[in-house]
Amino acid sequence: MRIALFATCLGDTLFPEAVKSTAVLLARLGHDVVFPPQQTCCGQMHVNTGYQREPVPLVRNFAEQFGDPSIEAVVVPSGSCAGSVRHQHQDVAERYGDAALRAGVATVRTKTYELSEFLVDVLGVTDVGAYFPHRVTYHPTCHSLRMLRVGEKPLRLLRAVEGIDLVELPEADVCCGFGGTFAVKNAETSTAMLRDKMGHITGTGAEVCTAGDSSCLMHIAGGLSRIRAGTRTLHLAQILASTRTVPHVLTEAAR
């Protein structure tokens, strides 16, 4: 398949390795991965903060950049950004867009997928040939769990990783407290939620906490580093891209 990769803002600015790993993984599975260079923010931050008219140019650009008929699928290493494209873009286009925007959004949203659902639902694979000999726990992010309803798909992929010691995260489906601007506007509540999440993560004894959203991992990683927990965070794509030939080498975590 000819697959377009959407990097997302955080992937572009703070977590490029998650984006690179997504490209490496898809290419290893035999697909042609392209990167539309004029892609920008999907506008999720604006919509979530209540500015629904402002992201119209961003939604239009997304539809233009990824609307090429030769692109068979758009893959996003982020449940929240994939959810924005699939759901919020349609709302923005219907409320504030013109006919061309509505048509463009309708075309692109049907071929946009979060990484795990693309691998399992579209490609029909769970064993991607990964190797990661470490103790890992998985945090299901809110948008992937509740908006996209990816369910067990990330766990099915992780269970097939050679060498992994996958341990269940208690109260996994409870929010980590990030929520984008929620963490800024409601800092005390966010911090309390993060404290609970960190307690469950460290209780597993995992070396790595993984998830499908760099935003949540950023929030969790910040908390874990402050308490010097010794637990790292790593995007799901980086685990799946790791192989015996080219293994991912863990960096030392703060203790």
From TrEMBL:
This is (Fe-S)-binding protein. One of its GO terms (cellular component) is cytosol. InterPro entries: Cys_rich_dom. GO terms for molecular function: oxidoreductase activity. It holds the Pfam family CCG. Residues 3-85, 136-220 form the Cysteine-rich domain.
